[in-house]
Design goal:
mainly alpha, three-stranded antiparallel beta sheet, 7 helices
Length: 162
Amino acid sequence: MRILRTLGPPLGIAVLLGIALTAVGMRGEYAWGWAVLGAAIMVAVRMMMPDDPRADAPGHAEAADYVGSDVSRLAWAISIRTDTVNEAVTRRIRATLRRRLLRHGVDVDDELQADAVNRLLGDDLWARLTSRRTRIGDLRDAIAAAERLVTSQTQDSTKETS
């Protein structure tokens, strides 16, 4: 692959030069001879010698194809026109709330702890987040609940240390 990157441009230009000189009217042997000479000169100029500072320099990292950020994908998953939120957003919010509730010792999958989930999150917020159609208002309530869970956890930890 490195050889192709090194020899590709000089060989491509040599072919173009040979075709152009032949089209201008130069005899084929001379046209292609000049093209080969031009390619050899280009390869020699691009060659790195041992004392060249580029010889041991780190190469450029190949840029990955830009696919967009998480924020932009999540923003496109919120539809203001229909007042709904896509599953990608609700999945992330549910995962965040699940982690924060587990820190408080509440498991959302346990039906016996449904009252504790409603007490910490709000009236039937978890049911609204797991329903088929989640609205933007539910998303706002879930974010506010997640922030409340963090602040209540930090307040509990500061009380324990004092």
